[in-house]
């Protein structure tokens, strides 16, 4: 009998690119194999959102052969990979320890299933279609779906906080806490560029990350605008890690695949304030808040 052929980086990359086709990536994106030899053998894989130093440390300590991340390490123009810079140091550390690095970014956002499908599933939302369809309408950024039963925005915000990994600022919502929520739009990662699509879709609430003040307040001022639920960027994309791990396990039997335990959210400290204070100092009588909102940590 001949020994079974070794699983290679190329085998894992082929499985990931079948699930998350590079053609779906935005023109500005940098996806695929960033570090490593396609012919190198792979036994252990770690999946994470970010290729930050803590994740690279985790990969090295676990003895993995391939690190799969959502966010690319070298997204913007790079002119040096000296060890004096964090990204350069990461490249050298990965090479020194024979760890390949692969990323699936906006192609994983648009794929079916992809990042927003994983987010929707975590929240108990049954997906119907993309929020911003591409090609045949089956793929695209964001998802629209429904909850099994209606609930208030306050209850839904708690649902989101309970479903996603904990972060320093938790989950915040804009809108009437007693508003009924049934139809939901979600978009993992920064999503305020699609606020107009959420309004046009007629959903009750839009869940995304990195909502900025002016787009959010302008949106909420619109008649019949969906309520907003804003979560940490990392937390919104973390459910994808389990999805990508399952892709590898199913397509390449024999791989040992784990999801990173490192929390790579940018924020390490948060403290809720009293919304009744408005904009005044603690010992003053300030104005009432202009819009109803809630924060859950």
From TrEMBL:
SUPFAM superfamilies: NIF3 (NGG1p interacting factor 3)-like (SSF102705). Keywords: Metal-binding. Signal peptide: none annotated. The keyword Metal-binding applies. InterPro entries: DUF34/NIF3, DUF34/NIF3_sf. Residues 266-297 are annotated as: Disordered. Homohexamer. Belongs to the GTP cyclohydrolase I type 2/NIF3 family. NCBIfam families: YbgI_SA1388. This is GTP cyclohydrolase 1 type 2 homolog. It comes from Actinomycetospora straminea.
């Amino acid at each position: 009998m001949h020994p079974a052929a070794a699983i290679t980086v190329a085998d894992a990359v082929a499985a990931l690119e079948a699930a998350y086709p590079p053609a779906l990536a935005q023109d500005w994106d940098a996806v695929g194999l960033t570090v490593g030899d396609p012919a190198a053998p792979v036994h252990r894989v770690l999946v994470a959102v970010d290729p930050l130093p803590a994740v690279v440390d985790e990969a090295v300590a676990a003895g993995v052969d391939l690190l799969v991340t959502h966010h690319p390490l070298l997204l913007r123009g790079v002119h040096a990979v000296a060890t004096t810079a964090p990204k350069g140091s990461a490249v050298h550390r990965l090479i020194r320890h024979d760890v390949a690095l692969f990323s699936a970014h906006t192609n994983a956002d648009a794929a079916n299933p992809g990042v927003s499908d994983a987010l929707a599933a975590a929240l108990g939302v049954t997906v119907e279609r993309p929020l911003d369809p591409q090609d045949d309408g089956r793929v695209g950024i964001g998802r629209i779906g429904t909850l099994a039963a209606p609930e208030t925005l306050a209850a839904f915000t708690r649902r989101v906080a309970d479903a996603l990994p904990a972060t320093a600022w938790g989950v915040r919502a804009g809108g009437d806490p007693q508003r009924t929520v049934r139809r939901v739009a979600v978009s993992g990662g920064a999503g305020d560029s699609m606020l107009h699509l959420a309004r046009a879709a007629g959903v009750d609430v839009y869940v995304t990350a990195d909502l900025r003040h002016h787009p959010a307040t302008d949106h909420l001022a619109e008649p019949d605008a969906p309520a907003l639920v804003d979560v940490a960027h990392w937390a919104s994309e973390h459910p994808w890690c389990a999805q990508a791990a399952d892709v590898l396990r199913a397509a390449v039997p024999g791989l040992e695949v784990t999801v990173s335990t490192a929390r790579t959210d940018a924020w390490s400290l948060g403290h809720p304030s009293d919304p009744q204070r408005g904009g005044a100092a603690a010992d003053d009588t300030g104005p009432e808040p202009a819009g109803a909102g809630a924060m859950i940590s």
